Amino acid sequence: MNRFSEKDWKLFRSKIADWQEAYMDRLNKEYIRLLEGEGNPSDKFWELEKRIRQDKKDCGVQCERSRSNLFFNIMSLLREGAITLEDLDDFSEDLRDTVKHFVEMDK
User: What pTM does this model have?
Assistant: First the structure.
């Protein structure tokens, strides 16, 4: 899906770093709770290692920033909870409508 405007692409590029920082901040807080929780230190260590291995694949941590991946990145960010539909308010109506359509299909 490479049909979205240059404005949408520029806006995405300007927002993605902040979205990722907020997402990783949330992950860090989850990791802290995991480490502070009950259980054996070794179990917590290996659970944390497993979580980090999984989480680093999320678009909220790292993603291929290309215009051709704009839609797919936004959908991934939504699915991961890194952003909400409200975070897309500044984007074009075309992009928002397309994303909303696919979000509804995911339900």
Answer: 0.90
Return the ∠ at Cα 76 (arms to 12 and 6), rounded to 5°: 25
Q: How far is CA 100 from CA 3, 19, 34, 75, 107, in A?
A: 16, 19, 34, 10, 11
Phi-psi bin for 81: left (phi > 0), alpha (psi -120 to 50), beta?
left
- Beta strands in 8-74, from DSSP E residues, in sequence order: none
Quick one: CA dihedral 70, 71, 76, 82, positive or negative?
positive
In DSSP notation, 75-92 reads HHHHHHTSS-GGGGTTS-
Q: What is the mean pLDDT of residues 75-86?
A: 97
